[in-house]
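Module 6 notes. Inverse folding takes a fixed backbone as the condition and produces residue identities as the prediction. Think of it as a translation problem where the source language is geometry and the target language is the twenty amino acids. Below is one complete input and output pair. Work through it position by position during the lab.
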């Protein structure tokens, strides 16, 4: 029986694991049934258990709400796959022995950490867009553009961006999406509308309040995280502004348990975790570097409305 498929693809179809076209899965199962093949359940369960260890090299800054959710997803996915998950709080060069593969947050010194892992022949998966590396990333640029287009379609033209003016990949890509959508709509870029929210609730609050009290006016805000969006809304409320009637707000992440029904760009955190662990295991087995961009979706909540003021 030759289906022209890899052993890994056939194994995933039999185990009911992994993502593939349903037509491919059914073709494999039909061929197995026709040949009279019946997999041994004990052997199949043993084959599901990975002997791999995958570490995550933590960056500074602690555990925010998004990272906490992502961490839980990684632990769950690793447990389901039988992969040993290793928390790595110390600099990579302090470890005498490293896991079989390492996940890296695309933050400070990512190039140096990649170089060190390459030197020690340990595969790495970057959590964030990174040229010439294996990486998994949500569609940050596409999400930023979708958020901004949502506001443009509601008639807003004075749209502020609340982010963090650093080289952090997520901010860079979401800001790029914001700028691209404005350019696409023929709206001139206004640098003074790009605020430093420091990727925190307090930072978002301070940036928006300081800008408004300084005389800057806008009818909408795209915040590059839900945390900054919550801070921005708090500032608007304390300023006596009605939201969304006077100022609409869009966030990014899709965090649960928010105090508002936030219009936001929702990440598929579980899928990002699955793709990261899967890619790490592929690299351990000698697979090629792959770049995986996970789609996002826009959730329309109660924090956006049609613009009632001139832009």
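Target side of the pair, the amino acids:
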């Amino acid at each position: 029986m030759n289906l022209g498929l890899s052993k890994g693809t056939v194994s995933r179809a039999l185990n009911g694991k992994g993502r593939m076209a349903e037509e491919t899965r059914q073709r494999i199962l039909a061929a197995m049934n026709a040949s009279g093949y019946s997999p041994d359940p004990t052997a199949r369960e043993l084959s599901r258990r990975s002997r791999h260890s995958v570490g995550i090299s933590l960056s500074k800054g602690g555990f925010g709400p998004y990272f906490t959710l992502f961490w839980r997803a990684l632990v769950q996915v690793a447990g389901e796959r039988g992969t040993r998950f290793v928390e790595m709080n110390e600099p990579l060069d302090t470890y005498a022995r490293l896991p079989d593969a390492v996940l890296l947050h695309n933050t400070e010194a990512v190039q140096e950490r990649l170089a060190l892992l390459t030197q020690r022949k340990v595969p790495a998966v970057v959590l964030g867009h990174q040229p010439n590396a294996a990486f998994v990333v949500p569609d940050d640029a596409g999400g930023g553009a979708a958020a901004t287009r949502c506001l443009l379609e509601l008639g807003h033209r004075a749209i502020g961006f609340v982010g963090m003016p650093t080289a952090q990949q997520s901010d860079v890509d979401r800001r790029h999406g914001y700028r691209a959508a404005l350019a696409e709509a023929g709206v001139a870029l206004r640098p003074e509308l790009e605020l430093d929210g420091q990727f925190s609730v307090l930072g978002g609050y301070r940036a928006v309040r300081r800008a408004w009290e300084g005389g800057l006016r806008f009818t909408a805000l795209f915040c590059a995280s839900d945390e900054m969006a919550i801070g921005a809304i708090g500032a608007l409320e304390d300023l006596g502004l009605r939201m969304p009637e006077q100022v609409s707000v869009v966030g990014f992440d899709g965090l649960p348990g928010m105090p508002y029904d936030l219009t936001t760009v929702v990440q598929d955190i579980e899928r990002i975790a699955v793709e990261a662990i899967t890619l790490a295991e592929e690299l351990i087995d000698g697979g090629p570097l792959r770049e995986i961009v996970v789609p996002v979706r826009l959730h329309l909540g109660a924090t956006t409305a049609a613009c009632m003021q001139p832009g």
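Reference fact for the lab report: Residues 7-44 form one domain.
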